[in-house]
Design brief:
about 180 residues; single chain; Signal recognition particle alu RNA binding heterodimer, srp9/1; four-stranded mixed beta sheet; 9 strands
Amino acid sequence: MGFHHMALATDDIGATHCFYTEAMGFTLVKTVVAPTGSPGGGWAKHVFYDTGGGGLLAFWDLHDEAVGTGFDPAISTGLGLPAWVNHVAFDAPDLDDLAARCRRWQEHGISVVELDHGWCRSIYATDPNGILVEFCCTTAAFSDDDAAEAARLLAEPAPAREAMPEIVVHDALAGHAVG
């Protein structure tokens, strides 16, 4: 079963909209404006972006005194975790698509980190909310042996560690910065 949408908070809807439409290439398809139900009479915009893969990514633009304005929308660093722990990964159907998305980010003033994980290749950037976003291309099919090894490693209390993949950084190209 696929995701319908994932909803996250933003503290700057303008920068978020610019990033997700321009740098990510997503389309704004719906905005709902409604009360939050708090005693202070707060309200929120719930904006939805078509990610191009049959699912939506949504953001909450909160206007509610009960929430305030000083919250940290970063889903990892806001919790004291490294930025790479909680992140949002989008499918890149092939390596050509992944390369095109890398170039698009660079053209929007974003430096891109690339990792080849052996079974997939990924590029990473950070959105205006401090959320790590990823485009990922699966490069190897999963087998029954992979599933058995996954179950074995899951049950192993102290499994052997894989080597860290080589990190490739693609610097931002001259162009306009997003957000």
